[in-house]
Design a protein that fits this description.
The chain is an alpha+beta fold and about 425 residues long. The protein is about 20% helix and about 35% strand. The strands form 9 sheets. It has a 4-stranded mixed β-sheet, with no helix packed on it. The radius of gyration is 42 Å and the shape is elongated. It binds zinc ion (ZN).
């Protein structure tokens, strides 16, 4: 009996414990698990894309991840602290987890200096050229820039509202450490006929501190047009601080044979270089080759109309010529006056730009046109319509032709402008001229 008295409370204790464990399992289910992927707190920059890594949920071996309810109100375009909540329910049990996402301004403002970041002050006081400051969040912060002047530099600093700092420095060099700039008048390659008179076009020079120093240019030249060779003319200039700049011009003294060199190594075309059809004494086009010249014709009409408005008459004297017309023209010269004369006055059939329909002879077909008002207008304005003066003066050995101020070739406005500005020829533009050849 005594034993039975002891056993009864023990059974009650065991039952109570089982009930308690069961209740715990039912109320707080230890087998239901919820775990965040990644960190519980994440900081990102405003505007940055946020990809939530989510969470994992399971009950014993069962994967419940897909059943997690996520509440995500993160707005990456607004500064702030956001909570993402994850909730999983299973039976009567629920698990919750939270992640904090802080959208902050982590990017410094940008300071942009007007003018160079390294300036030669030429011994004078520096005059501020200006600056701007822009922040990704606060916008224009130019007014908040603090400028600190020192003898050899200026420090520009600014802070955005989130405390991100930016500093930019402008270096002041009191000495003039910049070379002058030399610009040649006319091209850097010119050609002169043997025994003709050499003309020195000179150069211009400007310096960042001294201004126009053209008068200080020293020209070193040994050009001798009685010698059939290539010469170099050197232009040198020094600024007051002793910085020296040099430019070189090449001068080719040519003879009549040089003009017809192209015919000794003919390339049967059509040849396009940089999308430009090249026709000269070396590059020929086939007998029945046709080009669409609609655009060129329209451009010529516009040029002629605009010239007229300014009182200049530039009528078309010659446009498209067929192979057979060119053949007849060349052979008439050849029969009457010989090949040397024919080659001087005309292109051999297959070698005339007129066969492309992209070349036109306009105005007076004489070198006189070059000094007449309409000829000067044409030289200065042709590029605006996409034309170049195809055979300029002092470029004879390059083009293979004497000066023809009346012969224009259509290449389009962009290329014509470049050729005109650089005082070069189509051959130089296309890189098919070798001065030493
Ligand atoms: Zn012509």
């Amino acid at each position: 009996m005594g034993e039975g008295m002891k056993t009864k409370p023990l059974i009650i204790t065991i039952i109570l414990e089982i009930v308690l464990i069961a209740a715990t399992i039912i109320i707080y289910n230890p087998f239901l698990k919820l775990k965040l992927n990644g960190n519980a707190t994440i900081k990102i920059s405003i505007g940055e894309k946020y990809n939530d890594q989510g969470a994992k949920a399971s009950y014993l071996k069962e994967d419940l991840t897909k059943e997690i309810k996520v509440t995500n109100k993160v707005d990456t375009n607004k500064l702030g602290e956001y909570k993402i909540t994850y909730e999983i329910k299973h039976g009567n049990s629920t698990r919750k987890a939270t992640r904090t996402v802080i959208v902050a301004d982590l990017i410094s403002p940008e300071i942009t200096l007007k003018g160079d970041s390294k300036v030669s002050t030429c011994g004078k006081e520096y005059t501020e050229e200006g600056y701007t400051a822009i922040d990704n969040v606060d916008g224009d912060l130019t007014k908040d820039v603090v400028v600190t002047k020192k003898s050899d530099k200026i420090i520009y600093s600014v802070k955005d509202k989130s405390g991100n700092k930016k500093e930019v420095v402008r270096i002041l060099d009191s000495k003039d450490s910049t070379k002058p700039e030399i610009t040649l008048v006319n091209s850097d390659i010119l050609t002169f006929e043997l025994n003709s008179t050499y003309k020195e076009f000179g150069a211009k020079a400007t310096d960042n501190c001294d201004g126009d120093i053209t008068s200080k240019i020293e020209v070193i030249s040994n050009v001798d047009t009685s010698k059939h060779q290539v010469f170099e003319v050197t232009y040198k200039v020094k600024d007051n601080a002793g910085n020296e700049a040099t430019a070189i011009r090449k001068i080719k003294v040519y003879n009549q044979d040089d003009l017809n060199k192209g015919y000794t190594e003919i390339v049967s075309g059509p040849t396009y270089i940089k999308d430009i059809l090249i026709v000269n004494k070396k590059y020929a086009i086939p007998k029945n080759f046709q080009v669409d010249s609609t655009e060129a014709k329209a451009a010529l009409e516009k040029l002629q109309a605009d010239a007229k408005k300014e009182g200049h008459s530039l009528p078309t004297k010659s446009a498209y010529r067929s192979y057979s017309t060119q053949d007849a023209l060349y052979n008439r010269y050849k029969t009457n006056k010989g090949q040397e004369f024919a080659d001087k006055r005309s292109a051999r059939p297959g070698h005339s730009e007129h066969q492309t329909g992209l070349a036109f002879d306009i105005g007076l077909c004489s070198v006189k046109l070059g000094v007449m008002p309409e000829g000067i207008w044409l030289r200065e304005n042709a590029h605006k319509y996409g034309f170049i003066i195809r055979y300029p003066q002092y470029k004879e050995a390059i083009t293979g032709y004497g000066y023809e101020p009346w012969h224009v070739r259509y290449v389009g406005v962009e290329i014509a402008t470049e050729i005109m500005t650089k005082n070069i020829t189509l051959e130089e533009y296309l890189g098919i001229y070798d001065i030493n050849a």
